[in-house]
Specification:
Layout: H1 2-20, H2 27-47, E1 52-56, H3 68-79, E2 85-89, H4 101-113, E3 116-122, H5 130-143, E4 149-153, H6 163-178, E5 184-187, H7 194-198, E6 204-210, H8 216-220, E7 235-239, H9 247-256, E8 259-262, H10 285-293
Parallel strand pairs: 1-2, 1-8, 2-3, 3-4, 4-5, 5-6, 6-7, 7-8
């Protein structure tokens, strides 16, 4: 009986689609048209988004209810409610092997403040096998099921401007989405070939990570093989080693990217004590929120 009802339900659904189809069209045409409409609606919605923060918060959430770093960020989100804040958590260059109750609570509290939480996943400079990276994603969901998105750090991988490199990242993004994760953020930390944007290799790609502000030309990517044909909401910029927050350069970034983060923390390659600029919350985070909350038309 259940099978009969299920079949009846499917035939009714198919008949309703068929009745709505123009003459000569097929069910496949109708489904494809619906997908195109959905993409257009999503494109329109995302183009209206305010520029937000992409915060690599590689800080252990000890004493989470009184943790000054986490409480400071959550207070800012509540104060600047229109500024999107995506927070990347990184327990152990990935999810680790067992649940940490402090991270579980940190995720809950960040989401309670309105932040979106992404789990860090490393591809070990592109050398980690696809099944190994996928296993890390599965472990994130097993240990911390409340996590919402995935942050893929693959550094040198995207210097390889080849279909194979694109396909690898597309497979990771597809695997993430099939498990309900959104968004996916890919971080080569460098200028990214346009073919990655064309293939929708990630929802957001970090096109610049460094100690110098990128130029408007670099942000635009207007050259053959560049990314000027793809909207700002697909791009992010991360800056370290900044003693001050340059409001004019931040305004330039806003015209070309929808996520940004600027920290004073230094990166010194040959100094083990200064190789992680993301191990503290930026001194500039209040100023960033204030600038991003301003109407861009006033700039």
């Amino acid at each position: 009986m259940r099978l009969l009802l299920s079949l009846c339900g499917w035939f009714c659904f198919a008949s309703s689609l068929a009745a709505a189809e123009p003459a000569g069209s097929t069910l496949g045409d109708t489904v494809a048209a619906a997908a195109r409409r959905e993409r257009s609606v999503q494109f329109h919605v995302r183009t209206q988004e305010r520029t937000g923060l992409l915060v690599p918060l590689y800080v252990y959430p000890a004493h989470i209810h009184t943790n000054a770093t986490y409480n400071r960020l959550m207070a800012l989100k509540r104060r600047f409610e229109t500024v999107p804040i995506w927070v990347i958590l990184n327990p152990a260059s990935g999810p680790g092997d067992q649940v940490d109750a402090n991270y579980t609570k940190a995720i809950d509290r960040l989401q309670g403040a309105g932040c979106l939480v992404l789990g860090y996943v490393s591809t070990r400079y592109g050398q980690q096998s696809l099944p190994q990276v996928q296993a890390d994603l599965d472990r994130w969901l097993a240990l911390y099921p409340a996590v919402q998105g995935a942050f893929f750090f693959f550094d040198e991988m995207l210097y390889d401007d080849t279909p194979a490199a694109v396909e690898r990242q597309v497979q990771l993004t597809t695997y993430s989405k099939d498990r309900g994760l959104w968004p996916t953020v890919a971080n080569p930390g460098a200028e990214t070939p346009g073919r990655f944007f064309e293939a929708l290799a990630a929802d957001v790609i970090v096109i610049h990570e460094g100690s110098e502000w990128p130029t408007a030309e670099r942000l635009h990517g207007d050259y053959f093989g560049g990314y000027s044909d793809y909207p700002p909401f697909t791009r992010a910029v991360l800056l370290h080693s900044q003693a001050n927050l340059d409001a004019k350069r931040l305004a330039t970034v806003r015209r070309h990217a929808r996520f940004v983060y600027v920290t004073q923390a230094p990166f010194v390659a040959d100094d083990p004590k200064q190789q992680n600029p993301w191990d503290r919350l930026s001194d500039h985070v209040e100023g960033l929120c204030e600038e991003l909350a301003r109407d861009a038309r006033a700039e």
